[in-house]
Amino acid sequence: MKTKVLAVDDDTAILAMLKRYFAWRLPEFRLLTADAGQAALSQLAQQPDLILLDVNLPDIDGFTLTSRIRAITSVPIIFLTARITDQDKVQGLGAGGDDYVTKPFSLTELGARIKAHVRRAHQPDKQAQIAVFGRIMIDYHAHQVSVDTTCLKLENKQYQLIEWLSLNPGQVFSREQLYEKIWGYDAQGDERVITEHIRRIRKLFDACQVTSPIVTVWGVGYKWQN
Fold it and tell me: What SUPFAM superfamilies would the database entry show (predicted)?
């Protein structure tokens, strides 16, 4: 069965270009399309494995649509948009997006990002294993992080960051290294994605009144501190 990607954009030229590229270079994927937010919500019944999402849609803006999608599914969402400000990127990631690509974009790079996100999302579970760091418990089999009895509501990339750092305690990773490890390709120029995800992880720990074990090593990167 082919992996399904849902592209949501009101620009028919963009959708036509993506259809040609998928047919030519990504034949293992099936491309679904929608030209508006409501149409995209209807397409969720097809259970896409990944969503490409524009921000400027005619009925629902992409940020609001992402929040509605996240109430239904946790599949990776890549913003594909002409909105290029840092504020837009932070808002998109804060709404539940996993990645942010600005137009104009390289089809080759987009294809690599799609493959990396799908590969990460479909990784098989590890053997059952639980690690405890004070009040924090990580269930690597269930992909869950808890503080005392409260299970944190983590997005896929947030959990993967916690998993990788906690499995390598004390080791410092740059933002570029973390991006390459979690997303599976060169992260140069995308450091803000890592920064925003870690900010949101820390906020979840703060809400549980526990100090985040993800520590900033200034000028270098991040590490997990037991």
Answer: CheY-like (SSF52172)
Inside any domain, residue 175:
yes
Domain span holding position 53: 1-120
Give the C-alpha distances (Å, rounded to integers) separating 222 from 100, 167, 216, 219. 22, 13, 5, 10
Q: Which of 102, 120, 138 is the last residue of a domain?
A: 120
Give the Cα-Cα-Cα angle 48, 101, 168 (nearest 5 degrees): 80
Question: Can you tell me the mean pLDDT for 79-96?
Answer: 92
| Distances 102 to 81, 88, 147 between C-alpha atoms, Å | 5, 11, 36
Measured between alpha carbons, how far is 63 from 22 in angstroms, rounded to an integer?
25
Structure tokens at 11: 């620009």
150 sits in which H/E element: strand 150-151
Q: Are residues 115 and 157 in the same domain?
A: no
| DSSP per position, 14-30 | HHHHHHHHHHHH-TTEE
Report angle CA 118, 186, 21 to the nearest 5 degrees.
Answer: 50
> Comparing 7-11, 177-181, 200-204, which segment has the lowest mean pLDDT?
177-181
pLDDT at residue number 48: 94
Name residue 169's amino acid.
Answer: P
**Rounded CA separation 12/18 (Å):** 10
Residue 125 lies in a domain: no
**Residue 139 token pair:** 């269930």
**Residues 100 and 181 reside in one and the same domain:** no
The pLDDT tens digits of the residues spanning 126-181 come to 444 888 899 999 988 888 999 998 999 999 999 999 999 998 888 899 988 898 88
